[in-house]
Amino acid sequence: MSMPNTNDIIDNLLRGVAIAAVNRAIFERKPVFSMGTVNQGVRLGGASLAYDNLVRPVAKQVLPQLPLPNGK
Hints:
This protein is mainly alpha-helical. Helices cover 71% and strands 0% of the residues. The protein contains two helices and no strands.
């Protein structure tokens, strides 16, 4: 597992803020340009970064070793 570089961190955080802005505008009908959007975006971006660097590598190692229910 490699450490994320600055570009990965910024990319995930900005993607999280963009997703939060669309979510707040379409579904929640709240102001997009607010600290709530930024806070939600940072949470989403942090979760995405954690998933990419912690969960995905482990899943790639474990899942190919699990037998399939149909025996193949």
